Amino acid sequence: VQLQASGGGLVQPGGSLRLSCAASGFAFSGNYMTWVRQAPGKALERVSSIGRDGYLTYYADSVKGRFIISRDNAKKTLYLQMNSLSSEDTAVYYCARGWVPSLDPDDYRGQGTLVTVSS
Question: CA dihedral in degrees (34, 38, 43, 46; nearest 10)?
């Protein structure tokens, strides 16, 4: 199983970014998928989840109305469109299998993408 997030970077407050997660080594279309994030000095947080066909979604209250999760099963890729970003969104973002995945940091070593929101 391989999950590699990309698309992070430095963005100004109020800006947008689109994250991608390339999946391999498992049946992507048969799995619920989730974005989690870890802000500096804080625990991992579940951000957004999506069902197998893309219709069922979940958003944390902190991102509801600003972030949009989507997936392309043919490309085995998960996306997170992030709008109206604020400094509180600064974190390393990871993708994971499952509707409520593990929040153990040891399960996410080296596969995330850093998003920094700063002016």
Answer: -20
107 DSSP assignment: G
Separation CA 84–CA 12 (nearest Å): 9
Calpha distance 47→90 (Å, rounded): 13
Q: What is the mean pLDDT of each run of 10 residues along the chain (119 residues)?
A: 95 98 96 96 96 96 98 98 98 95 85 95
Taking every pair of Cα atoms in the chain, the longest distance, rounded to a whole number of angstroms, is: 40
Phi, psi of 87 (to 5 degrees): -60, -25
Rounded to whole angstroms, the Cα distance separating 97 from 9 reads 23
Nearest partner of 88 among 117, 67, 58, judged by Cα: 117
